[in-house]
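User: tokens in, sequence out, please.
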């Protein structure tokens, strides 16, 4: 099986071909206003709603006829895509614009920025207030454009959304009122834009699906733009709300076209979805019910400080902060402050507030900051008094959500299929030792095969299995495990009076996972102080806390609920991050790269020369005012960028920053190589602009290869592309002496020296003698003539381009014949230099290539270069990146491994490894359904061109 066959077998079939249209400028003039459609790029275009349109063409034709429209044949629709049809359409729009009256023009357009200049008192309608008996009434409302279905020059359907509620609007031309220009303008508004609309409610001609109103719709009279969606979005709300076609997904597996990783990387967009809105309405419902239930029980809401002077419960799990030169810590719970409030005779308190945990746990159920629902209360005789109150409160939450939030729960179930939570009026309370007994008697064992110990805490797997056993025995998803072992509880927990190995504490579980930890606290000052010392905590560091007990504190108990975890488990969201508005986990706040000291500061893309020197930016897109390409490569380039000089590469430039992206047309695809030439902080914006231009102007499908991890994240998370890696940038530390670690290389170098091979270097600030150039050019031709078969490469052999950013080394044998060449090229300061060319020519003495390459690397190290790359090489294994998982990936990896071994794809990599090279993964990225057999062919044609 060939490499091409491997990729073809496990990728989607390509979409219908797109007419090729190469060349052209990446900029557009103001005259393009009539062809705005050509410049709209996002996942809005060519996605699910257009497939839906094609499947329902008969319904559209029926609807058009009912509205007095003339249905066009599919041939007519195709004809509209031709350049001649576009020209006719533009001319028709220009003629229609001439006939518009001022009254007609006032019905659409962009409103001035709202700056609170006046208040008209105009009443806007909320969709939730619309009813069927309002047919015939005129309303004014503000909403987002959720979806657009274009039906021709005279008719367009717009789906409007207010939070989770949608309704369909119809806009069609009317003599002397609504022009075809208005229809054209409206149908090209970007999805997600905010508009103000005046419309009349009417009965729908046919039932309207995929909206909240099936029998009524809005006849649009006026529509004005309040806020335009300016930037590309990786997915639309319409796409995110669609349910994936896998009807029988098991519980806990999301049925969605858009992966969670992409959603979480674009959080604001995801929060606009029906599911996002529903999650946080349910979260709000939990908080309201929690407060109401405790208020009725005589509790007082308090707000405790989150900055503390000592590491409270566990010094290893707190965040240390600089507090005016002194150490302070973010509270990992309000525990100590709650107890101090009880000591202050508050009797019963609760808090809803932030909790911080410095635990490096990258799991589906851990956050470093979450919302805690905490209670603390004085007790009379037994800590079960508090346990019963928290039990009552939680069940109040369950009842409220399933009664008052039915709509939100049904929305969640569409993408998160799960059964309703089951609980008993009398909650089962199981002693910890009995729970361990249940597990052991069921045959459950630890990973080492040993039975579970009754004095050690549950593991996550144990909890889940116990939940299954409890569901079988008691028929409930909700239960309490009481009397936890002392080893699993903090110092302030009251020991059990019956067995000191256990404590007066409990956990509450939902669907087999813990959501509440609670218990009785030690209120005796001497016992508390001794327990602190046993836990190696100095009581003197917690003086304020201790005074509350030394001055006398009542017996008390308390508990804490994790809000996000409770919500996740109730509705089987599968990932706690989805239950947190803007989640914080160990990977939040990634380190930002240090600002680079550019080789050519005046060719910066952050501060381009026309902004610093006052040079006016060109209006017509002339590139002679942009930064020179060779200086951009020296500022921002990687090993791939040095190939961009070849004639087959086409360079796109951004007029605002001067940033550059290179691509090679191959079939109906564009093969894009390497990272954009710009500051990494600009990757997201430049990528969106380029892809928009590529789609609308050049009409090629993108395949991005050899991009860095930073760029892979932009494409995988920001655009939802599939990514994988089977190549790596092979970098070496020039300051390391490889001769000291590899005897084989040392032996070969000594052999070359014995053959009287001499190495000469030409600094980049010195001209290269023409006779030397001629001799090297002749030997390069000898090398090419000696090569057999097709070669995979990125660039041609052109050693004399951009000489000021290159350093040359050549070797001659004892006959004076040039026998080897190494060319080093300057890259971005973050990448150092590249071994652009490294040849030993026919007849070179054995060891020559090792000799000259090692000499060049060591020379670079002596000149202060700290990183040097050989460029891309094949890796031993294939690595799956974003949006790739499952059995297909495993088969693909297995096939690639076999191919790599059979054809020795890593032969060059192994040689470079002997010179000290280490691998840094590079990625291939492509849109979903964007590769296929044609994409594979385009990629192979590019590599073999």
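Assistant: Sequence out:
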């Amino acid at each position: 099986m060939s490499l091409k066959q491997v990729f073809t077998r496990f990728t989607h079939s390509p979409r219908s071909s797109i007419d090729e249209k190469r060349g052209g400028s990446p900029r557009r003039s103001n005259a393009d206003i009539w062809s705005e459609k050509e410049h709209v790029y996002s996942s809005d275009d060519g996605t699910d709603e257009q497939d839906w349109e094609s499947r329902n063409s008969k319904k559209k034709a029926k609807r058009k006829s009912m509205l007095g429209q003339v249905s066009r044949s599919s041939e007519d629709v195709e004809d509209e895509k031709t350049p001649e049809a576009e020209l006719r359409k533009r001319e028709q729009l220009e003629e229609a614009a001439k006939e518009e009256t001022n009254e007609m023009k006032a019905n659409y357009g962009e409103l001035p920025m709202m700056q609170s200049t006046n208040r008209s008192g105009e009443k806007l309608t909320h969709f939730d207030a619309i009813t069927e008996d309002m047919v015939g009434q005129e309303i004014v409302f503000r909403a987002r454009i959720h979806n657009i279905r274009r039906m021709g020059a005279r008719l367009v359907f717009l789906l409007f959304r207010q939070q989770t509620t949608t309704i369909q609007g119809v806009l069609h031309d009317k003599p002397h009122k609504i022009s075809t220009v208005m229809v054209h303008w409206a149908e090209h508004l970007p999805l997600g834009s905010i508009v103000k609309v005046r419309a009349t409610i009417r009965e729908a001609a046919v039932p309207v699906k995929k909206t909240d109103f099936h029998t009524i719709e809005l006849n649009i009279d006026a529509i004005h733009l309040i806020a335009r969606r300016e930037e590309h979005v990786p997915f639309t709300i319409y796409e995110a709300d669609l349910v994936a076609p896998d009807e029988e997904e098991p519980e806990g597996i999301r049925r969605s076209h858009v992966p969670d990783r992409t959603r979480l990387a674009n959080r604001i967009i995801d929060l606009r979805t029906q599911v996002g809105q529903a999650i946080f309405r349910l979260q709000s419902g939990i908080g309201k019910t929690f407060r109401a239930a405790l208020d009725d029980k005589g509790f007082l809401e308090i707000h405790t400080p989150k900055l503390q002077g000592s590491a409270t419960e566990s010094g290893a799990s707190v965040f240390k902060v600089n507090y005016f030169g002194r150490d302070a810590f973010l509270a990992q719970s309000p525990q100590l402050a709650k107890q101090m409030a009880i000591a202050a005779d508050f009797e019963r308190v609760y808090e809803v507030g932030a909790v911080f945990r410095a635990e490096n746990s990258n799991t589906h159920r851990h956050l470093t900051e979450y919302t805690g629902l905490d209670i603390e209360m004085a007790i009379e005789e037994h800590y079960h008094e508090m346990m019963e109150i928290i039990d009552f409160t939680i069940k109040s939450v369950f009842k409220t959500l399933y009664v008052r939030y039915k709509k939100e729960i049904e929305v969640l179930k569409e993408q998160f299929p799960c059964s309703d939570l089951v609980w008993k009026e009398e909650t089962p309370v199981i002693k910890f030792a009995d729970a361990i007994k249940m597990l052991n008697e069921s045959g459950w064992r630890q990973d080492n095969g040993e039975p579970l110990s009754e004095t050690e805490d549950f593991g996550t797997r144990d909890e889940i299995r116990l939940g299954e056993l409890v569901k079988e025995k008691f028929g409930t998803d909700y239960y309490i495990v009481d009397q936890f072992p002392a080893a699993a509880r903090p110092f302030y927990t009251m020991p059990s009076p019956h067995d000191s190995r256990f404590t007066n504490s409990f956990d509450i579980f939902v669907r087999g996972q813990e959501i509440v930890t609670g218990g009785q606290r030690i209120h005796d000052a001497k016992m508390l102080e001794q327990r602190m010392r046993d836990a190696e905590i100095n009581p003197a560091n917690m003086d304020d806390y201790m005074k509350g007990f030394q001055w006398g504190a009542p017996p008390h108990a308390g508990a804490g609920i994790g809000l996000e975890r409770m919500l996740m488990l109730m509705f089987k969201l599968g990932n706690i991050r989805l239950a947190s508005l803007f989640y914080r986990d160990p990977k939040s706040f990634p380190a930002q790269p240090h600002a680079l000291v550019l080789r050519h500061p005046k060719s910066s893309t952050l501060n381009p020369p026309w902004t610093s020197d006052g040079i006016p930016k060109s209006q017509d897109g002339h590139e002679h005012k942009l930064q020179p390409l060779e200086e951009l490569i020296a500022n921002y380039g990687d090993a791939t960028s040095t190939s961009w000089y070849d004639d087959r590469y086409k360079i796109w430039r951004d007029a605002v920053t001067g940033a550059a992206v290179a691509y090679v047309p191959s079939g109906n695809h564009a093969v894009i190589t390497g990272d954009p030439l710009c500051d990494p902080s600009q990757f997201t914006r430049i990528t969106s602009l380029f892809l928009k231009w590529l789609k609308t102007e050049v009409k090629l499908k993108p395949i991005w290869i050899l991009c860095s991890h930073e760029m892979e994240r932009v494409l995988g998370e920001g655009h939802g592309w599939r990514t994988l890696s089977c190549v790596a940038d092979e970098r070496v530390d020039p300051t390391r002496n490889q001769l000291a670690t590899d005897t084989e290389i040392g032996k070969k170098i000594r052999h070359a020296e014995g053959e009287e091979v001499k190495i000469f270097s030409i600094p980049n600030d010195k001209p290269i003698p023409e006779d030397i150039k001629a001799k090297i050019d002749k030997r390069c031709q000898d090398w090419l003539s000696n090569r057999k078969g097709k070669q995979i490469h990125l660039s041609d052999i052109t050693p004399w381009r951009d000489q000021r950013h290159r350093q040359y080394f050549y070797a001659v044998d004892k006959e004076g014949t040039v026998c080897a060449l190494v060319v080093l090229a300057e890259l971005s300061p973050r990448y150092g230099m590249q071994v652009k060319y490294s040849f030993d020519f026919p007849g070179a003495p054995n060891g020559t290539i090792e000799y000259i390459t090692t000499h060049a690397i060591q020379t670079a190290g002596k000149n202060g270069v700290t990183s040097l790359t050989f460029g891309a090489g094949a890796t031993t294994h294939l690595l799956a990146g974003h949006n790739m998982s499952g059995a297909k990936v495993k088969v693909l990896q297995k096939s690639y491994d076999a191919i790599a071994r059979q054809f020795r794809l890593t032969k060059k990599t192994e040689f470079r490894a002997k010179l000290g090279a280490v691998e840094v993964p590079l990625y291939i990225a492509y849109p979903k359904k964007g590769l296929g057999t044609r994409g594979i062919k385009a990629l192979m044609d590019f590599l073999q061109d």
